[in-house]
């Protein structure tokens, strides 16, 4: 039973990852191309300024894979594998929740679990640390940025589990509607405080030391020593649409997993009943 649930989770996750790749390949990849062009042009402008100032030139190195390989085979492989992993994780959580679901139907439970995982694994962390195209993000802050994002995911998951536990406890004393509202409000307040406490990426020590006091790592206009802008800041429209399409791609992944499991719920219940029957006999 457990292996069949996890196997279906892997397949649905891989399907969701494939559809997310098709969506991103059509809408997000052109933005990534423009971001890479922007980054290349900005690096050239920075090198010209450094050369004029007599600073040593950095060796930019060569890429192991071409841009076409990264955008097609590499991107599709990464999203399908990521989707399969999320599908397997969903299946484990769904199986554990199914044993304590009470009056919640298996179909409703599938949608609730997928919605909860989408909320905690992507939506809430992205409100503080949103997805960025290639030109945004400094190499020297890669480790602290990764740690902060993973920390947001862990805190979000723990807060949601605590909110669900609180809601179940309150439901025994209050009506379900009031219990759900109190639990949701508690989760919102906790995550709002966490977002206020954690630093914005632009305020990391390395960024303040090298680039000044900005809220984000989004490239600002590049200026020469006299203050004249020699290269513009990153285009705001591209940044907005990249984040929008990243959100939509994740929504596609979790929608496929949640709806797929909801569709399979009657079959999973039949499998479970058929396994329990010989034991009962």
From TrEMBL:
Superkingdom, taxonomy of origin: Bacteria
InterPro entries for the chain: CbtA_put (IPR012666)
Keywords: Membrane, Transmembrane, Transmembrane helix
Transmembrane segments: 75-97, 109-127, 147-167, 179-198, 244-265
Keyword Phosphoprotein: no
Species assigned in the record: Nocardia yunnanensis
Protein name: Cobalt transporter
